[in-house]
Amino acid sequence: MYAPPVFHRPVLSTGRRRTGVLAAVAGLVVSLLAFVPSAPASAAPTLLSQGKTVTASSQENYGTPATSAVDGDNGTRWSSAASDPQWIEVDLGSAASVSQIALRWETAYAKSYKIEFSTNNSTWSTAYSTTTGPGGNETLNVSGTARYVRLTGTARATQYGYSLWEFQVFGTTGGGGGPQIPGGGDLGPNVLVFDPSTPDIQAKVDEIFKKQESAQFGTGRYALMFKPGTYNNLNAQIGFYTSIAGLGLKPDDTTFNGDVTVDAGWFNGNATQNFWRSAENLALNPVSGTDRWAVSQAAPFRRMHVKGGLNLAPNGYGWASGGYIADSKIDGQVGPYSQQQWYTRDSSVGSWGNGVWNMTFSGVEGAPAQSFPEPPYTTLANTPVSREKPFLYLDGNDYKVFVPAKRTNARGVSWNGTPQGESIPLSQFYVVKPGASAETINAAVQQGLHLLFTPGVYHVNQTINIDRANTVVLGLGLATIIPDNGVTAIKVGDVDGVKLAGLLVDAGPQNSQVLVQVGPDGASADHSANPTTVQDVFVRVGGAGAGKATTAMVINNDDTIVDHTWLWRADHGDGVGWETNRSDYGLQVNGDDVLATGLFVEHFNKYDVRWSGERGKTIFFQNEKAYDAPNQAAVQNGGTKGYAAYKVDDSVTTHEGWGLGSYCYFNVDPTIRQDHGFEAPVKPGVKFHDLLVVSLGGQGQYEHVINNTGSPTSGTSTVPSNVVSFP
User: Fold this and answer.
1) Which of 74, 459, 639, 690 could staple 22 via S-S, CB 3.0–4.6 A?
2) Catalytic residue among 388, 624, 679, 703
3) How far apart are CA 167 and CA 13, in angstroms?
């Protein structure tokens, strides 16, 4: 497992002995405050910072996170790297009148530091500064209005970093009290929580599967959550809009002596429509020695430990059309069999069985060697940047969300040894339930809460705005957001470290210009140290009913990581037709240094992916052009026949992609021709590795693979035309 270099040192004071002293001091401070006379109209100062969102420039090691400075525990601490300057910042959730700061330093304190206030996290004013800080317990009387309070140390008193037991901000809010929207609470009726003593687990799991097995466009949403322990003789069959997950910190904390199964009996053995489901954070001892996970798009297999083999094809080896594994360990062989394409990231496999068209690996121990196109393996030793998806877990009896740390040049799973990252208590989340309005959701974010969407369908009449750095937005059970009046469903600000994960965004009947937008137009901030991640966020236009959107997803923020998305203009279901569910563009990337790992984009009326930012990278791309194009004229792009599945703008000077495939099936007019599947400027910095195009049964044809390079697809043979390297 990759772990960043950490600087370890002994705690220079006896923290637990010191706790009693600090507690006494805290009690004295509170007692004294009680006797301070105040004007009748003023509220007494309140501790505003405890449990709030906090960030820091660095941390000494995994045991000293920034959250420890606002947790109210004088035996836990934040400590920084041993360099200058360093900072810690707390988001109070809303603007407050700040009157006092209490600093409780460990022996490694700041000799020189300043306290700054901001209402918008960009414009700052200095509330206090010193070059003769005494360390120990400091109580600073300050005055000002702030939502964000930052301490920046500029000179250390010791050779070590900066170390705070507690960073406390006191003041009053406009409401004269605590938050208006409570954090935490129950997880709602569609989250089923089991422990090993729960009676009739199999019957309850089977009941959900019976409802969801063929409910491809239904409204049911479920999350099956298993507390740590061992479960015997269980076969959890997973249908549509169903997520199954363990509630331990590691997969091995929750073990099934049994299986988690996806098969395709509902569709006569054809797994090409086994979408919208997931398995996470479990260990399996499969009954037969091999677990079956026969899926296609939008069905992630994350943070799993299979103590045996994994079969990715349906019973009888019928068709299957691509999927995604990340942060998982499969002790035995992975057998793709009929899987046409697959992406595996930062995992470990005993061996890999075969490949059909496009099998791509990055950071996978045990992956087959690079050999595209025979066999069609694209193998990268490492993933350039990755951060695993946040997940819900139990710490004793308390629910928390674990946010894994960013890794660079990752290889193998993230959960060997002590998991690196941050735990956020559920009390810091607004637990969103069906019926919640966008207004309330936005108020919760402004208040400083993260968002946990419980399983359900959410209609919104205004955009959900995530404009606070490091906000976690996590959906359970394929929680689905539908904009009713043509608004953008979700927008992220030009801020650091937002985590969007586990959501399905469904276009509404009134056209939305964009459904998911990461960053405002013209975003320019550098987020390389703490990027936004978009993980298992799926977008659908049509299928469940009439829907329209000009562009499914736009990435404006620099350094964003898009880790497994399926953007789908529906080719079947309700509300489907060339103009009925019109959506011209799937993904538009304007930000620089954006990385896509596991990019599935299909059936858009024009470009499926258009990349305008510099230094972009894509590892694995799966695409089908729109089946329902009525004729050649409908897809004519000036003098070019058809819109490329993946276009890099002519202005781009640096771009790279590995393992990219595009397929056509023009069943309305099989005479349609695509000049190429991929289009890019011919420049030294623009590079592609292992490209292919396929005509499915000869329903339409490609003339080339990329630009004018690559042979045409041939007849009805459904044989790929490949390009190993471009240019």
Assistant:
1) 74
2) 624
3) 18
